[in-house]
Amino acid sequence: MSMRSGGAFGRWSSIWLLVLFWVGTVPSLHAMDADPWAPFLTPWFERVGTREGLPHSVTTALAQDTRGVVWIGTMGGLVRYDGFRMQVFDGGRAPDALRDAYVRTLLALPGGDMLVGTNAGGLARFQASTGRFQAYPTGAGGISDPKIYDLAGDGRGGVWVATDRGIDHLDVASGKIAAVPIGTAAAPRNFSVLQDDKGDLWLGNDRGLFVRRAGATAFNRVDAANPTVSAVLHNQVWALHQDPDGRLWVGSGQAGVVYRDGDGSWHAVPGFSPSPQRRNFPTVRHFAQSATGEEWIATDGEGVLTYRVGQPSVRQLAHDPAVASSLQGDSIRDLLFDSTGNMWVATDLGAAHTNTQAQMVCALLPSPLARYGLSESNVQGMLVDSRKRIWLGLGNGHIDLVDLAQGRLQHLVMGGAQSHRDVLAFTETPDGTIWVGTLGLARIDPDTLHVTNDVLAPLSTHPVLSMTSVDGVLLMGTYDGVYRYNPATGQLDHFRHDPADPTSLASDTVRYIAQVDGKIWYATTAGISVADRAGDDRGFRNIRQQPGRPDGLPHDYVGSIAKDARGNLWLATFGGVAELPGGRLDPQARFRIFDIASGLSSDKVNAVLPDDRGHLWTSLSNGIAMIDVATGEVRNLGARDGLHIPSYIYLATARAPDGSLLFGGQGGLTLVRRHANEEKPAEVPPPSVTSARVGGQELPPGALPRSGDTLTINNGHRGLQLSFAVLDYRAPLETRYSYRMEGFDDGWTDIPVGSSPNAVYTNLPHGEYSLRLRATTRGMFPTTVESDLRVVVQPRWYETVWLRTLVILAGIAAVFALVHLRTIYLRRQAKRLQRQIDERTHDLQEANARLDKLAGTDELTGVYNRRRFLALAEGVRALSAEGQACLAVLDLDRFKEINDGYGHLAGDAVIRAITDIIISQCRPGDLVGRYGGEELVICLPDCTATEAMRATGRIREALARAEVHHEGRSIRVTTSIGVAAIHRHESMEQWLSRADAALYEAKRRGRNCVVLAGD
């Protein structure tokens, strides 16, 4: 059943307009789930596409080898992927190459080998020990047909091969292939094959499902008395799967899915098996089951369906154009649960993966298309009412109402003066009425959801920033002080800051109002004002920052206020979190401060919220953190925990009816589970070496060292280059990598976050070393893991001990024999040896300089490669003032058409030519690098945005005029350019991201233009 559904608009109009947009009024399909949030949450997918290096967007097969590396099959080649780097095998004419680039299926073998079934090139085996492919013969004595649909192990070291013209059995050890008779009832074409745990061999055929029982020799058609099940079993069977509970899942070409229990009984899948309501379904390509027992079903057109036995229907995970973290396409070819619990999905627009075990933090995301999508991206106000409904204040006059008990999400759109205004505050009066603070004040009937806009005319031009109800009286904080309104009498009072009265309100900007122990606390931008009663207009106790006091209020800009179960009062400020132990207002309020020095990732704190286990949670400008009140330990959440909304500037926070904590952010609603911090996640594996060049020689995957192994360099080339990564594929952009060669390096070499982890050494002196590879993860449970390799660099012949000993003995004999000439001899020897040392030192220095240049140079263009460019640009960023340096990202327009039309050699010629043009247009101090593929980057030091736009404009014009000649043909090319001026507060990744976003805007505007990134 599709998650995409529309809603019906109801209109009410009098003086003001109200629109109620109802979505999801039908009870959730997941009413049986213990998790009330299940209908509202969808997995967050990280995408892996052609931009990351895939040779083709249509991904067709997935597998993970025994070392943990993920293999991705596409229509244009096979990829070995470690989370940062892609090693591409795209076919070729060499005898040890892949014969067909269109990969249909993969099967991992012990020892790191991989079986590869192709569309027209038959079956091949990637040999990890050599890094080459072994092709199996097709025809007599070989595979029945070069079109391979499926591969499945037989449990004894053999493999069943489903082809377009039969079934074969491969003995992996001997390489022998035997055709398997399937009889005349089955068609020659076989889409899937599976041997179950009882030894029965199941065959998914063009004419339906067939089985050969253990010990039998013939295949028989599988049928069922239930006509619904029979319709699936007689359809084309494209996918077979046996789950850990022994159920057999059968996916068809047009009739949906059924499954068979261990007792042999067949069952339909509600919502995805034939019924009077629906009989035609998309092709089912693959199955996989999560660790929690949920079956994932890959379909060709409806995305991924998930189903738990006993549920009333399936749930759909589909592409949502409004949500960047959704699947990028709905045509799914393969599924893979890797060794650490990530789900990988192969789509027609690239691969994607999601961490299915990151359940600590989840998000409700904005989407006008999704049934449970928020109506706006920014959650700015929040309230949980007495009926346990969650009210979310959003932008543009939108309110979303979440009812967990009903599994329902409703959208309201404000009218009148509140139309298109941010909804910032809510409160509930004792009669259940919901009051809304936006531009002015509105009232909502809790039963009918009828909205009365513009309740108070004097407030119709004032944004209501905060609001609370004290004994039925509304206290409202604005930019113009506090308004006090009694709905019963209609009385409206107003009080402000009086510069002449130190006991008046601390500031006119009142961001938060809270009643604590009978007192009223007003949080302002100039400190805190505490009143004894709600009716007080002055006579406040004002608390402000006192410079030099370490236990004073850390900042006058104060946000939310909360009291925990122990009576401690917590304040969110722009100088950190302040705790007032016991909430006592002594003559000198003494606070305990938590800031960056304490471990917070930012001092800009927006909201605080205590849980029921002695922890304080807080939203920061760049994330969410937890403070253990007992120990003072601070933990910053990360993507490994499920946190994907990185920015928070609003005070919106609340405790959900199920005990979960809610934080409003820029990009959606973040949900921190009540079980957060109770269960530690799986251990992080140590970094693995995923590629290596030792002594100038590339090591095949099977020879890559593991932690504790020894690498020996025994030739004249003393270079060492290792690529490494933590192979759990979780939050790679948050993981910090470093390395150190003990015995050679003085300290650790840190790799910029997000860059590919590589350790590079050239001309190592002979000796023994210990190379340590380190990875540090971020999140609730930050972890540092290491791998340790022993590196042995053997001496050259003239560095051996025996030769040195012989030279010393000869010298001693010469000294004794020629004592009378010793002075002259020693002087000449010293001069000669010094010249040799100087010459060799000079040669080595030149060689090191050349190697260092090669290590940082792109082989095709001669400009800086990505790693060297980012390192140099980081230096520019660190030294540049605000707006005094710019970054430009250039992408050749429709470059794929050049490669397709003229060939990849022509494409390389174009890239070299345009790089020369770019260099000719740049200043001597500008940095030019190749970021990847047809994408180039330029760093312009001492350059304003205006100057950068002129410079890049000249480059764009020069490229548009240029013609590249290749093999007698003229090729013209244009480029789109994104430019971003530096902000002092941003990181290198943020600077580059803004330039990249401007590039995409240039593409959207029609290409061949330059776009300057906004702030």
Q: What's this entry about, in short?
A:
With 1015 residues, the protein is mainly β. It is 13% helix and 37% strand.
How would you describe the overall organization of this protein?
With about 1000 residues, the chain is mainly beta. Helix content is about 15%, strand content about 35%. The strands form 18 sheets. A 6-stranded antiparallel beta sheet has the order 1-2-35-34-33-32, with no helix packed on it. Strands 61-67-66-63-64 form a 5-stranded mixed beta sheet, with no helix packed on it. Strands 69-70-68-73-74 form a 5-stranded mixed beta sheet. Helix 5 (about 895-900) packs across helix 6 and helix 6 packs across helix 7 (about 945-960). The longest helix has about 35 residues, at about 820-855. The radius of gyration is 34 Å and the shape is globular. The chain starts with 7 loop residues before the first strand and ends with a strand. The model is unreliable at about 1-35 (pLDDT under 50).
Approximate shape: globular
Strand content: 35-45%
Average pLDDT, all residues: 90
- State the low-pLDDT regions, or none: 1-33
How far from one another are the termini?
Answer: 42 Å
The radius of gyration computed from the alpha-carbon positions, rounded to a whole number of angstroms, is 34 Å
Number of helices: 8
| DSSP summary, beta strand count | 74
Strand order of the largest sheet: 1-2-35-34-33-32
Helix fraction bin: 10-25%
**Major sheet details:** 6 strands, antiparallel
Q: Which structural class is indicated by helix and strand composition?
A: mainly beta
